[in-house]
Amino acid sequence: MPIPKLRSLNIQAISYQNAPALLLQDPFQLSERYLVLPQAYGPVLYLLDGSRDVASIRNDLYAHFGISAENGAIEELIAALDEAIFLENERFHAAYAEALARYYALPHRPMLLVGQGYPADADELRAQFDAYLAAAGPVTPMPAAGKLVFSPHIDYQRGHEVYARVWKEAEEMARAAELVIILGTDHYSSHPITLTRQSYATPYGILPTEQLLVDRLARAIGEEAAFAGELYHLGEHSLELVLTWLHHMRRGQPVPVLPVLTGSLIPFLDASYSPADDPLLARFLAELRTILQERPRSLVVASGDLAHVGPAFDGDRVDAAKLAQIRRLDDEMLEKLAAGDAEGFWRIIKRERDENNVCGVAPFYLSLKTTGPVEGVRAGYAVCPADEQNTSVVTIGGMALG
């Protein structure tokens, strides 16, 4: 059997038949399959890193985890993963190429959450968002010349109050924009930057991707780096939910978009330099800054949430003391973001080792490094429940900056 390597998947801890389990799903959606495995299989998945054959996996499973695998169990797991196209091998690469061709043949990137997270009908969506905006109350708008918006990307049910206040503040900016550069959290990929040549859409219509600018960024960072994970756009919600709000604030009028997924900056926590000094990210940021100089009526949008803490995220339950700590840290980070201080924000993340799992680190940091000096005032903040027991939370905030 060839040396197996597990692909980057969406793996969630769940309860299945009253027992701890792992749910494995494919963000590329290469097949409709998913796998539910007993939690005890976690160490085996960890060892499927492409450096071990089956015999080595069995030996290391016992040496490092004290687990003895039954005869044939590892082989059966690998076969099941292969059948689901969850391994990085020839089968995967062939399926990926076919899926990419289908993706490009579509009129736009399929809306992932339409009909579930928000109405598919444009009139229904308009009425829903207008109700959210009316309930948000008065908000002082940022002038049309504003440069940057920080928006949450949580579901609308939990986050609509913050969405409404942020986008009410950014309304004039959204309508004046002649190009929108949106950086959103890539929850599944290890790629620092992932571009796409496909256009995004909302119930109001298509927001065309600015192809020439995509090509320029791809040349700056290299085609492989730019597009190796392009199909992550299919299963990622972070751009879709924010672009839908942008399109609404523009009253359904289209605008060219440059959609970018940004991977985790966690690998830089132990680096002696800032993420912006990484060669690939430095080239990416330099090209974005050049684009902004050439296209002064551009709007940069950063799509990200704040803390993800509690059992739903493999942590301890959130009590009153922990919630107060989360709020204090959020306040400290939002103060740096409002001041346009990218490096100050990064120093907080580094100091705390990102203990609170801030999913917006990359888009917040990179957008500030793109726009240069900006400042703003927090438009909204909320603590959202993340499990039925109310022991996990997601915090969100946002603002417009100019």
Describe the structure.
By secondary structure, the chain is α+β, with helices and mostly antiparallel strands. It folds into two domains: 10-103, Outer Surface Protein A, domain 3, CATH 3.90.930; 112-401, 3-Layer(aba) Sandwich (Protocatechuate 4,5-dioxygenase, Chain B). It has 15 helices and 13 strands. Strands 4, 5, 6, 9, 10, 11, 12 and 13 form an eight-stranded mixed beta sheet that branches. A hairpin with a 2-residue loop joins β1 (10-16) and β2. The chain is globular and about 65 Å long.
Task: Provide a short characterization of the protein structure.
This protein has 402 residues and is an alpha+beta fold. The chain has helices spanning 42-47, 54-65, 73-83, 90-105, 122-135, 156-169, 171-176, 211-221, 223-227, 232-235, 240-249, 279-294, 320-338, 342-352, 361-371, and strands at residues 10-16, 19-25, 35-38, 148-151, 179-185, 193-194, 200-202, 205-207, 257-262, 298-303, 308-309, 376-385, 393-401.
Q: State the share of residues found in helices, binned by percent.
A: 40-55%
Q: Give the uncertain stretches in residue-range form.
A: none
Named at the architecture level, the CATH assignment of the largest domain is 3-Layer(aba) Sandwich
Radius of gyration: 22 Å
- Class of secondary structure makeup: alpha+beta
Shape: globular
Note the main sheet: 8 strands, mixed
Strand composition percent: 15-25%
The N- and C-terminal alpha carbons lie at a distance of 57 Å
Number of helices: 15
CATH topology of the largest domain: the name is Protocatechuate 4,5-dioxygenase, Chain B
Order of helices and strands: EEEHHHHHEHHEEEEHHHHEHEEHHHEE
User: pLDDT average, as an integer?
Assistant: 96
Query: Care to count the β-strands?
Result: 13
CATH homologous superfamily assignment of the largest domain: LigB-like
- The first-level CATH class of the largest domain is given as Alpha Beta
| Number of separate domains | 2
